[in-house]
Amino acid sequence: MLARRAFLFGSAAAVLLAGRAQSQTDPKLFVLPKGVTSPQLHLEEGGLKPRFEMSLEGWLVVNGAAAPRATYRELCDMLGDSFGESDGASCRLPKLPVQYDESGQPISGFAISPFWFGEMPPGGLKPFDVRNNL
After folding, report:
1. Contacts of 84 (CB under 8 A, 6+ apart)
2. What is residue 24's predicted lDDT score, i.e. its pLDDT?
3. Which end of the chain is more exposed for a tag (fewer CB within 10 A), N or C?
4. pLDDT value at residue 14
């Protein structure tokens, strides 16, 4: 009986520690700074051509991070638990491939609008690449 209790206690501790370890490795929430843009393409003869660059300042990198509901209420209401369960205080962003530099900062990938941007509601996705801003 004592061996069974020790096994159950050890199993419960392992599950708790594994959950804790996973939360420590959750992706960091990145908010894109001023100067990061995304090309707005226009269909012309010969294909798509960039017409202008749209600022993505304040947009969130879609790397699967948790976004605080208090700050990003509209986005979290729209996403719900579609991309992972939340603790009620946050929502999980979609996870798409992101490239990072040596210091761990995102340099290319996709970003999601956390707010209304003109006629685009929260949840709009745009590509970004800090190396190729016009």
Report:
1. 64, 92
2. 55
3. N
4. 36
CA 132 vs CA 33, 53, 58: distances in Å: 15, 11, 18
Which residue bears the tokens 């340099």? 107
What is residue 95's three-state secondary structure?
strand
Residues 6+ apart with CB under 8 A from 33: 57
Alpha-carbon gap, residue 111 to 15, rounded angstroms: 33
Q: What is the pLDDT of residues 4-41, one digit of tens each?
A: 333 333 333 333 333 333 445 789 999 999 999 988 77
Mean pLDDT of the residues in the chain: 81
Biggest CA–CA distance in the chain, Å, is 79
**CA quadruple 55, 31, 63, 82: dihedral positive or negative?**
negative
CA angle 77–74–109, rounded 5-degree value: 95
0.70 exceeded by pTM: yes
Residue with tokens 């393409």: 41
What is the domain partition of the chain in residue ranges?
28-129
pLDDT digits (tens, 9 = 90+) for 52-67: 888 999 999 999 999 9
